[in-house]
Design goal:
The structure is a single chain. By secondary structure, the protein is α/β, with parallel strands linked by helices. Helices cover 41% and strands 15% of the residues. Helix 11 (220-227) links the parallel strand 7 and strand 8. It is globular and about 80 Å long.
Amino acid sequence: MTTNLPGRVRSTDDRQGHDRHAYDDAFYAFARRWPGYASEVLDTDRRDDFARLDRRGDVYLDYTGAGLYPESLVRAHADRLTSGTFGNPHSTNPTSLAATERVEAARRAVLAHVRADPDAYVVVFTPNASGALKLVAESFSFGPGGTYLLTYDNHNSVNGIREFARGRGADVVYAPVRPPEMRIDEDGLLRALEATSDGAPRLFAYPAQSNFSGVLHPLTWVARARERGWSVLLDAAAFAPTHALDLAAVQPDFVSLSFYKMFGFPTGVGALVARREALAAMRRPWFAGGTIAFAAVTEPRHDLLEGAEAFEDGTLNFLALPAVEDGLARLGGGRQASIDTRAMALTAWTLEQLLALHHPTGHPVVQVYGPTTADGRGSVVAFNVQDASGALVDHREVERRANEARISLRTGCFCNPGAGEAALGISSEELTGCFATHDRMTIDAFRGCLSGKGSGAVRVSYGWASTFGDAYALVELIRSFATDPG
């Protein structure tokens, strides 16, 4: 007889043919080692709000790519839309005022969630986290004598800011990442922060958590940079789904957020949380509907609104924003802390299990990029599978097998080329030689340049609805590369 174990995804495990006794033994050992995994609240959420995973036999391991939406959030939002009438908030009629009330309630909810003082910070709603980053890119006062300092470990939407900086004559400086731990060279970073300046604006940008390796970068860098005259942009898109961000303690000038990464719904809404004085120092390159207090055509002139509204181009996604308030409320009451505890328990177990796998030749089955323990990391694991000779298995083959098992994971460089280049040992000389032979680079052409090196990795990430059954399914999939190399 099989005991009913908390967190077991019975339908998924049985469909994949996992040995029940082996699974039960593994779960009991795991539960004894990581007792914090137990959560009646999260077990109830999995049963009531994410039951579709078990109905469909899905193993979802891409929470850094997108969070999963709780069904109750979608139902509550649908009920609100079908029971109310909401008009364009750029007016003062009754339906417009109803929409405006919900928009402002969402702003207050975001500030409360990140513990930001409303007198110090404002919330600018954007189409996504990339939209928030672009607002900073196009409006920050880059210029000759200024510097854009960023870490190798950054999302492409942060890397892309360098084009605005270079275009306006500012220097662009990268702080390198050091494999295999994939942490930033802190000594080099601090030297860059100590560099003297003639007073020109300088911006330092980095992620609170790597979307590639899961490394948690020190939030103490924020104060050190600001004390030295830098403005600081903190990308919290990968951090915020499982960690509480406290802007009463950590006070960057700008923070980018993605709500669908936090609770799955709505998509098409992100936010820039900005210090009021930092936002006031920005200079927008254009104006749009919704951003102006006044505009004239016969005598060309415009005056922007003040604060957040000057940066919200056109009409906000006002029908979606009430779901942001609801989603944040659902993460409250200790639920987000429970998600983090459970996700980190699964991460620690996954790392131990993957690193213990070996081929009969003695070669390890997996190479992990990033910390090999739970210390100083989030619930993201990046790795590649190796064959019996130690050569990398194409990450696309791992994805193919995962797809066959209905396991959703991520492969590639995850829009983080700097971390990928460091992890895979791709040198500047190799990149230069590759670029010299191609007028326009594509990913297939890039793979052809690498002389047998990997062009990407496999990434798994845990979140709100994750269970031990999900982690077990992953490990069994990777174990199959040792027993059945294909």
